[in-house]
Design goal:
With about 350 residues, the chain is of the alpha/beta class. About 35% of the residues lie in helices and about 15% in strands. A 7-stranded mixed beta sheet has the order 2-8-7-6-5-3-4, with helices on both faces. Helix 1 runs antiparallel to helix 7, helix 2 runs parallel beside helix 7 and helix 3 packs across helix 6.
Length: about 350
């Protein structure tokens, strides 16, 4: 697996049950599907370059001023926009974490320091990061809950990190794309601090929560309007397609779908964790819509799962991890049962 490969990229392995990508198992919201069908005739014209209707609806849904929002074609695009638009000289992120942070920073010519998360502590972010924050850092990037571990950071620690970044004159970018899947998302977001800390950027997306990975729609929050304008200057016009705008606007209004989705994840996650542990797998994290576990046999697990018709996410290409670590999405009960059956057979191959 290459360093930039992610889950949800099955290399032509069609017809397989995909637990490698952490997408909403219910698929696109019904209202988004209807909006896409109804908007087809608009696709031959240029989309609204400001995505005005979507931005206004998103501001209302998230409870932030519209001027604090910047949309982009997916969270990954916005990560690169931050790196290339701000050109930090030195940045800090975690290991393991989402590889696009390091890739974007490297593309911008930035020196990247990695703070290692310790296996002995379950790869949880702790106060050992604070002494690592020193003069010379322009940008710190954290993922909360982290990917691939699904572990959240203590909210008080995040606030201390944010204050320290302000003291250093550094920006703090926190990726909250998986926050809605937490049991108490409001307890783990820094959104209430945006107005107090103009050095704070929050990253979110429609990708995971609304299963809109193929439509590409993400967004940033920041109270520093001048900073957002610098980022916008690095983006081409019409970067948010007409289909993405239509689907995003409709998804925000599909509250029944959202309630059903979150109830499913909160019901299935503890059950699936229990079943993985029953099979002898060490589940190390998983507070969102995916579970992170260790498998200690020498032969990697993911190729054997492919032979069973199921894709899981090997974490071998995450900095600081090996093929002993894997991640699986939380899906519907019938799909989760198929995963477990495949795991039993795959684990039996090693027996």
């Amino acid at each position: 697996m290459g360093p930039r490969e992610h889950g949800g990229n099955p290399k032509g392995l069609r017809g397989m049950l995909d637990f490698s990508a952490n997408l909403n198992p219910l698929g696109l919201p019904p209202k988004a599907k209807e909006a896409l069908a109804a908007s087809i005739d608009t696709w031959s014209a240029y989309p609204d370059p400001h995505a005005s209707a979507l931005t206004k609806a998103l501001a209302a849904a998230e409870g932030v001023p519209a001027r604090w929002i910047q949309l982009g074609p997916g969270a990954a695009d916005l990560i690169f926009r931050v790196a290339l638009g701000l050109r930090p000289r030195r940045a800090l992120t975690l290991a393991p974490t989402f590889s696009e942070y390091g890739a974007a920073l490297a593309a911008a010519g930035c020196r990247v320091d990695y703070h290692p998360l310790q296996a002995e502590a379950g790869f949880a972010l702790d106060g050992s990061l604070l002494p690592h924050l020193e003069e010379g850092f322009d940008l710190v990037i954290l993922c909360n809950p982290n990917n691939p571990t699904g572990r959240t950071a203590d909210p008080s620690l995040l606030r201390r990190i944010l204050v320290r970044c302000r003291e250093l004159g550094a920006l703090l970018l926190v990726d909250e794309c998986f926050n809605p899947f937490l049991d108490r998302p409001e307890a783990h977001t820094l959104k209430p601090l945006l107005g107090q800390f103009p050095n704070l950027l929050l990253l979110k997306a429609f990708t995971k929560l609304y299963a809109m990975a193929g439509l590409r729609l993400g967004y940033l929050f920041c109270a520093d309007r001048a900073l957002l304008e610098r980022l916008e200057a690095c983006s081409p016009s019409w970067s948010i397609s007409a289909p993405a705008q239509a689907a995003g606007l409709a998804a925000l209004g599909d509250t029944g779908y959202l309630e059903e989705s979150l109830a499913l994840i909160r019901r299935e996650r503890p059950w699936l964790r229990q079943q993985l542990e029953r099979l002898g797998l060490a589940v190390l994290g998983g507070e969102a819509n995916y579970l992170f576990f260790r498998y200690d046999q020498p032969a990697p697990l993911s190729p054997r799962m492919e032979r069973q018709g199921v894709l899981i996410r090997s974490c071998e290409n995450y900095r600081g991890l090996s093929a002993h670590y894997n991640r699986v999405a939380v899906r519907t009960r019938p799909e989760n049962e198929r995963l477990l059956q495949a795991l039993e057979r795959a684990l039996g191959e090693a027996g």
